[in-house]
From TrEMBL, chain B:
It is a multi-pass membrane protein. InterPro entries: ABC_transp_permease. The chain crosses the membrane at residues 12-41, 61-83, 95-112, 148-166, 200-220, 249-266, 328-347. Keywords: Cell membrane, Membrane, Transmembrane, Transmembrane helix. It is found in: Cell membrane. Its main location: membrane. The lineage of its organism: Bacteria, Bacillati, Actinomycetota, Actinomycetes, Streptosporangiales. This is ABC transporter permease. GO terms for cellular component: plasma membrane.
UniProtKB/TrEMBL annotation, chain C:
This is BMP family ABC transporter substrate-binding protein. Its main location: membrane. It comes from Planotetraspora thailandica. Keywords: Cell membrane, Lipoprotein, Membrane, Signal. It is a lipid-anchor. It is found in: Cell membrane. Belongs to the BMP lipoprotein family. PROSITE patterns: PROKAR_LIPOPROTEIN.
Amino acid sequence: MGNATGPLVYCHNRCPPSGTPRSKEAAITTATANEPAVELAGITKRFPGVVANKDIDLKVAKGRIHAIVGENGAGKSTLMKILYGMQRPDEGVIKVDGSPVTFGTPGDAIAHGIGMVHQHFMLADNLTVLENIVLGSEPRKGGVALDFRAARKKIKEISDTYGLGIEPDMLVEELGVGDRQRVEILKVLYRGARILILDEPTAVLVPHEVDELFDNLRGLVREGLTILFISHKLDEVLQVADAITVIRRGTTVAAVDPKEVTARRLAELMVGSELPSPETRESTVTDVVALAVRDLRMGASGRSVVDGVGFDIRKGEVLGIAGVEGNGQAELVEAIMGMRPISSGSITLNGRDITHWSTLKRREAGIGYIPEDRHRHGLLLESPLWENRILGHQTRKPNVRGIWIDRAGARRDTQRIVENYDVRTPGIEVDAAALSGGNQQKLIVGREMSGDPVLLIASHPTRGVDVGAQAAIWDHLRTARAAGLAVLLISADLDELIGLSDSLKVILRGKIVADIDPTSVTPEQLGSAMTGAGEGA
Amino acid sequence: MSSFLDRMLGRVKLGGWLAVAAPLLAVVFAAVITSVILLATGKAPLEAFNALAQYGAQPRTMVTIINTGTEYYISALAVAIGFRMNLFNIGVDGQYRLAAVVAAGVGGAALVPGVLNIVLVIVVAVIVGALWAAIAGLLRVTRGVSEVISTIMLNSIATGIGSWLVKNYFGVLTGNELATKEIPADAHVPGMALIPGTQLQVSGFVVLAIVLGVAYYVLLNRTRFGFELRATGKSESAALSSGISPKKMILTTMIISGAMAGFIGMPELLGSSYKYGTNFPTGLGFTGIAIALLGRNTPVGMAIGALLWSFLDNSSDTLQLLDISKEIVAIMQGVIVLSVIIAYELVHRYRIVAEQRRVSRELAAPKGPQQVEGAPA
Amino acid sequence: MLRNRVSKLAAAGAAGAMVMAVAACGGSDSNTSATPGASAPAASAVKVGLAYDVGGRGDGSFNDAAAAGLDKAVSELKVTSKELEATQGETDTQKEERLRLLAQGGYNPIVAVGFAYSGSLAKVAKEFPDTHFAIVDDDAATGANIDNLVFAEEQGSFLVGAAAALKSKKGDVGFVGGVDVPLIHKFQAGFEAGAKAVKPDIKIQTKYLSQPPDMSGFGDPAKGKTAAQGMYDAGADVVYQAAGGSGGGVFDAAKASNGLAIGVDSDQAALPAYSAVKDVILTSMVKKVDVAVFDFLQSDVAGKFTAGKHVYDLKAGGVDYSTTGGQLDDIKTQLDEFKQKIINGEITVPTS
């Protein structure tokens, strides 16, 4: 998911330095008098009940980069699957180069010059670039023998034409992520695509690779190709697209010109309302220390992953930990949860030393935990919601009575969570896997808020959830904070961190390197503090 | 999402009629494959199936099927306990054999009279089975040794220890048969004349097997321990962050699985042979694995699986009377297990999609257009 | 084309079914009219049931020898027969069921091959007093309708022991027993006595592949190979195996070590299964289960069933050594001298 935290309105640490020109040359060169390369009219796709698409209207001009933006689950993927022949629309017309087409399989789409570059690469590591590209459409010589020479020549030609810089005989395992993506693009071009669909292509890339990709894309449109670019990262979309279509709840709600729209406006179009803000208003911080961490060290000396970390969280306080991922946040959280051994230091909860307690005992003492990866750590995907309610609370009422599971009690309380936390589900007997990410997360939040916790550890609480759920989760955190809950917040979403936290600490290579006042810091300043560039604020 | 392995081991449930459809499909498929093989070898499938059906309908056969099935069932329960939390207790075989040898030795010594001896024998078997399984559990939690490897090795060691015990301590030689001393008659568990038309009696251990099946269900589905076991099996990482200690669970589960394995040899020891000798059944632990797979670790599914397996195993003589090789039974059993796994996979995929659609539909229907949630995560 | 083939197959299957159905009808007819126990009126009405031990027909050893006796009876005595085979790891109950199935089906006489049937046969024979049973290799199961066919394995083993000692250049021979049970002890005792009769100071290595109740030593060629390999490595040049299905491994080890091996039960150098290793098979201690089975069937068909122990020794031609391959040609006279002495009673071979 990368940092898919809803609409990132601002640029954070991965954005180019301010002043980078948002190149629009490509858009200007081929702007006029062009029949659409792809035209969708009135496309509707009904799965029994599911959103999918309704009345999608979309015109993609030839030789343009056309972005399709929308929240997670707005229906972008379904739309692309329809266009790539993986799914058949129930109603509506698809026109390619002006003539109506019907696609039964991706093969049909490819035959009409439409190719798809998937978010997850589909390359075999132990084969060469050449072999990967020809896989599935092997060139034949006299019908039998593989004609690698012709293939190599063709790949070279394509690579040179579009400036992709691909060496056909390299092993894929030797390539970096950006190169692999170019191989995927080349693979599609090799099969004759003139219209490329790129599904969240930047999700796996680091900033300079993103810039390289965008240069490549501009190169492609210059040569007359058409690109459909799917993303929910608005800064990137504004940077590269020539036209933008916004999808909300399965239908196209707006077609906008990137030159005339701000990121914030775009985000509001996607959400369909005023954007929620993570801002917390007045302070509720008390004098009572709920959690005290002192001189915490983890890992072998010399290679400590957490190195002398100490802090207090008071009741009613949200302490935010900012840091580039992999600087010890995950380990710190697991140490406080008792899931990972520490080398030295102490952890005190409500005045009681819990350093040597088991995870279970800590949870019973009132620590709630919203894990970073809800699928791995927060849920039993193949179990019904009410069993998920028990998870982590398997020793407490209303879930158990002695050694027995209190099924009625657990079900009743799950119903309560579903209602109070607005978990959208037809019932509590469905498996957790059937819920959308946002609803899964609301269930977890509701569960972890149960049983009057003293401390809540919220690790990326709104990662990968839709904007509606994000706002709801922020609301719940604020309410609980006002009621005296201490919160340890870890997040990669700097707006979330700045907006929710009463105090902020920056972690770098396992050490707390800065204390920052969230009321006066900008995301840019915080971002540079996280990389160790500018200390303090 | 669950892995294919999860589904194969039945850690993922299937709801409603689908749970029945898959095994039925598999049995039908197995019958088709078997027919093809029979035809290919020049035998008439209908004849064979007819003979099997007639054989199965005889009262004496029914008793035999139930009695053998009882042992299979207990074995499947022992295996399934491990399966439910991701442990492959391949060592059920060694555990029950070692348990039976020691229990037979103790029972043969007639330390206590009558019913007390029965209780003693069973308790000894359960303890030995549990201890033997605990070795594999300890190796896993302390040294990280995969229980698959350690239990396979422990099976061989159990064979050796069993022979050594019989030869040096418990053994009595009759002709060429070296066996433990026979357990005195006052500690024989009587059979029940449940099925009319035959002198053979249904083993009294059928009652025990039913009790164990119920206990298995209650333990897994109604107790906190069972919840922790299933949670660990479904997601070890989620269990860990929920305060469940995977190490403790591994050790406990191995011990319970081994204790259950201790029961496997009891119907034979206390109800039929009364001694551990050359003809004491071997390999029941592996049969249990197949049946646990077949029955998807559910108590009822495994009961049906055990009876089916037992029926097939016992019917090999009948087929031989028709000059059909007894190996056809092994082929049928293999095909059934494979097709059950495949059928469940298909049904499972269907169910996931169906459930997600149902959720979306039910969400969309009453609330109208006001809110549309995204595709299920 | 495919369809054509399938339909042919189906036709063949259907034809088979009809034949079987007819056979089944015939079977059930004779079933009802058969009067078990009474002297058979005509040889062709006799239905012989044979229950094999694990391995069954084609095991290249013991079961095969029984099958040969049955085949001879079928062709010479015009009896009909039915053969059932045991499964690995089965219980006494399942063996009983097999015997019952035969007895109820009107098969009489019934031959149980192997001492594994001892307990189950004793039980079933009581339930069917009018059916005649024979059991090979066991004298523990006794009754008025049980014929115990046992062999003087020690006598045959004495001869191959002598052969081993005469052929051994290093004065070092080995014995690999399948399972450490009294039956196999007889092989070992005879072998040792024979070897020592030729060369009193000969070195004899002994190894059993498994200990009862673990019977895997009769069916594990890998174990047999490892054990024999160890003996060859330790200096043996002739190894005698009495290990059933594990014997093949001993031959493999002999081949790999340029040693010699001695077979058991059947004339193993003449069996197709061992054609690849026949040059290392010096001789085999032939235990004529076929003769015993045939004799039993012949006398029963003739109405001369006698219960009790029948010992097949050298004198009765029940055991012998084989000469296939001609490797014993130079010492045949010496061996035949020993043979004569045993028959005369000049030499008494120990059994344990």
